[in-house]
Amino acid sequence: MTEIGQIRTISNKTGVDKGNKGSNSTLIKLDFIESFKHYCTNLEYHNNTKTNEESQGVIADDNSAAIDSKPTSGSGRKSKGNRIGVTTSAVAAQLKRRILEGNYAYEERLPAERNLAEEFEVSRGTIRSVLQILEQQHLVTRQIGSGTYVTHREITNQQEISSVTSPLEMNEVRIAIEPQMVRLAIANASSRELDELRDALRQCESCGGDPEKFARGDAAFHMALAHCSRNKLMYWLYERISEVRQYSQWRTMKAKLLTAERINFYNGQHRNLYEAIVARDTASAVQLIKDHLYGVHDDLLETD
């Protein structure tokens, strides 16, 4: 029987024995008081125990949350002992990200295999596999006895793009835009702009087979053609294309490409193109500029 049940039984007994006098009544009252005290003591103990268990549960939850939310240290270039994974792909991805973000600059040597293995907590064999992957992605080059060097270079501005563009790449862009430039020139060019195109043609034809003079005249002729289009954006684009001619790759190729025979042939093509534009013969002019540019493409491949 529970303490509450005992109290109720005692209370009932007090009701039944109301008529009794003397020691029996006193004993019943004392039993009731002792039982009630015992009940209160047990109730207090039970509540305290429950509160302590709930407090410990909260603390445990807080500790778990603290462990779960504990920040992991970054894997910066000079961090020590950070384990980011034991697989080749994980290490390759980390090193690739560092290269692309500029942590390792163009032509900079990477740390030795031993140092990379210690940093990423992998074997040197894994590091060699990682470097092979990066080399296949054209991000690094490995030189026996020297080390591994970064070959990736981020292009950040217009001048750098011009400096790393090859003559063949330049001509591929010309093939894409110059036929439309010719169409616009035939539709829009004024007589004054056509006179400018004629003057540039004469500059080409008077070069006497000199590669430098012809190159200057050729650039002037095609810039005049862009001006004839009367499209400001087209003219701006062609200015960017012409900037490639200022850099070493084009200068080296020009000395090989521009033989006296080719200069005479190109001049003949320029003359026919000019006459088709003046005559407003769109079909012939577009075909002539395509023939010219694809011929230059083949000559570049043959010369390279």
- In helices, the fraction of residues equals over 70%
Count of individual domains: 3
* CATH homologous superfamily descriptor of the largest domain: GntR ligand-binding domain-like
Q: Which CATH C-level class of the largest domain is it?
A: Mainly Alpha
Number of helices: 13
Which CATH architecture of the largest domain would you pick? Answer: Up-down Bundle
CATH topology term of the largest domain: Four Helix Bundle (Hemerythrin (Met), subunit A)
Round the Cα radius of gyration to an integer and report it. Answer: 45 Å
Distance between the termini: 107 Å
Tell me about this structure.
The protein has 304 residues and is mainly α. It has three domains: 3-53; 88-150, Arc Repressor Mutant, subunit A, CATH 1.10.10; 158-303, GntR ligand-binding domain-like (Four Helix Bundle (Hemerythrin (Met), subunit A), Up-down Bundle). The protein contains 13 helices and two strands, in the order αααααββαααααααα. It has helices spanning 3-16, 23-68, 88-100, 113-120, 124-136, 158-164, 167-188, 191-205, 211-228, 232-243, 248-257, 260-278, 282-303; strands spanning 140-143, 147-150. The chain has a two-stranded antiparallel sheet with strand order 1-2. The termini are far apart. Residues 1-23 and 49-85 have low confidence and may be disordered.
Task: Give the secondary structure arrangement, pairings included.
Blueprint: H1 3-16, H2 23-68, H3 88-100, H4 113-120, H5 124-136, E1 140-143, E2 147-150, H6 158-164, H7 167-188, H8 191-205, H9 211-228, H10 232-243, H11 248-257, H12 260-278, H13 282-303
Antiparallel strand pairs: 1-2
Helix pairs in contact: 1-2, 3-5, 4-5, 7-9, 7-13, 8-9, 8-12, 9-10, 12-13
